[in-house]
Amino acid sequence: MKLWGGRFTKQTDKLVESFTASIGFDQRLAVDDIRGSLAHVKMLGACGIIPQQDADRIAEGLRSILADVKAERFPFLVENEDVHMNIEKHLIERIGPVGGKLHTGRSRNDQVATDMHLYLRRETKQIIALLVELQQILIEIADANIDVIIPGYTHMQRAQPVLFAHHMLAYFGMFSRDIERLQDVLKRIDILPLGAGAMAGTTFPIDRELVARELGFARIYENSMDAVSDRDFILEFLSAASITMMHISRFCEELILWSSQEFGFVELDDGYSTGSSIMPQKKNPDVAELLRGKTGRVYGDLFGLLTILKGLPLTYNKDLQEDKEGMFDAVDTLKGSVVLLGGMIRTMVIRREHLAQTVKEDFSNATDLADYLVRKGLPFRQAHEVIGKLVLYCIEQGKFLNGLTLDEYVAHSELFGTDVFEAIDIRTVVDARDVHGGTGTKRVMKAIQNAKERTAAM
Ligand code: ARG
Prior knowledge:
By secondary structure, the protein is mainly alpha-helical. The chain has 3 domains: about 5-105, Fumarase/aspartase (N-terminal domain) (Fumarase C, Chain B, domain 1, Orthogonal Bundle), CATH 1.10.275; about 120-355, Fumarase/aspartase (Central domain) (Fumarase C, Chain A, domain 2, Up-down Bundle); about 360-455, Fumarase/aspartase (C-terminal domain) (Ribonucleotide Reductase Protein R1, domain 1, Orthogonal Bundle), CATH 1.10.40.30. Helix content is about 60%, strand content about 5%. The protein has helices at about 15-20, 25, 30-45, 50-70, 85-95, 110-145, 165-190, 210-215, 225-230, 230-260, 285-310, 325-345, 350-360, 365-375, 380-395, 405-410, 420-425, 425-430, 440-455, and strands at about 150-155, 155-165, 190, 220, 265, 350. The chain binds arginine. Arginine binds near residues 109, 112 and 320.
């Protein structure tokens, strides 16, 4: 017998039953569903909508079900369709017809929305905590490698040398924004739909503020129709999750490049790499690649929900049941990705000797040579021209700027003096960027300090 079986004279077709059921995935909401029900029934008792002793018996029954759910011994059944009816039906079986009073003044429509808000609030807070942990790993790496210089790129061509720590802190900045975005999404997650009923409100004198306080919601939906139809908070979460995954993916792309023989900047730990079934020499950055791939999956979750919502008239439509799997998938994928990225970078080896050599073998100090001439009085545009010619000369001679003699310099401009060698030294070049946001060592050390304070305050 279905909970809604009254007006039906035939059984549900078996295929329809499994097609419309969501219990296969929404049982993940069971704990939140019971939490919501406990708050609801407390309010029903407090407002005198049902006798207090009935409310107490229902609460007791719900708590015993909660224990079973937590112990993973609650029997979720497809014929009971979804998590809400599984629990309600079981409650009635357990404590008798009085259990049927729980659903007074409530609908599954405001109930499921409440479950989703509770679930996503909890998970979003956890994800923020995981991102802070990832940031702490970035700070540790930056701190431990403050002396390491790597090539910086634009257009994937060597541009200017930077501190490895500066590069790590760029990702720190991205994850800081991701955290801010999630904190902002939390404001819209933290709204209570319960009390909206099916869509128009309820005829019972409910106290929505009491329920909101009980469940710790900052606000209450002001419009019952909006309350049961709104899934913006999930969309916003999925958008923020997509952007975070995009950052993870960019980082992974760099790690894949950096761990190649061509770059050789880092070596990923054996524990975070896999081999080839045919090529014995191979050590592949599978984890980084898979994280890059998983990004597409989370984008899919976002686009799935956007597409589900675009044509829906108010208010509740069964289409909305499709909002769950993508949300669960994005939560699981993002959490796993943040943790794995942290483990992968924490264990990777930064190939210091190789990097120390590699940064000497390019023209990434050319900007500094132009700046040198500017300081000697030449307009920047002319200085650019002189150094451009000098680089061309180097290429023809098979040399780098640090391999030229003073005579060769002076042949290109009378302004060059012996101090030129100091000016193009890679360390000088890096530390000369002594501006707010620049890669100079003092600035980066300060940035690490700021980052430490920021994460400590989280
Ligand atoms: N399982 C449903 C969902 O996830 C619960 C709400 C059902 N409401 C209804 N009127 N059929 O959306």
